[in-house]
Amino acid sequence: METIMYLIRHGETEWNQIRRIQGHSDIDLNELGLRQAEQVARRFQGESVHAVYSSDLSRARETASRIAQNFDYTVSTLPTLRERCYGQWEGLTYEEIRARFENQDEAACGIETFECMQKRAVTALTELAKAHPNETIVVVSHGGLINSFLHFVTSGEQGTGITRIDNTGITKFRFTDFWNVLQVNDTEHLES
To answer: What pTM value is reported for the model?
Structure first.
């Protein structure tokens, strides 16, 4: 049994552009993000894809829906594929966070722990892979979640704090009884 999973970060939002923390805040794609979603969708034209999944947040759903149109699929959304929850930090820039919460720890601000997000990512993505033996699936999610999963799969050699995941960057995995990374942050579709 082998499952191929394309794990894709959503297109750009206004908050991405101005470096405002999104987390679980439901922010739509901006004009560039919509173009990026169209570009990544074209990348999958002619591919054999058996299902398209997405975080239930609109920026991921909108990106996934462009890809799903290639196959006349409905996007299946899962809240477990959401970005890390940043609690009171959501909607703020890093400068604003430093000014307002300088002496408060993350737990006091309602922020989901990295370990909790990573466990959520590993569980959700492994369940999806097991549900699609010998198939190829597309999953659209968020940079933090993708990086936490990549960190898990590579035992910390890549992922959080190391690897940049660009908007609509494609990271490809193979699942058998374990995960293998085949490609990280492919953005070739944005260069055309």
So the answer is: 0.96
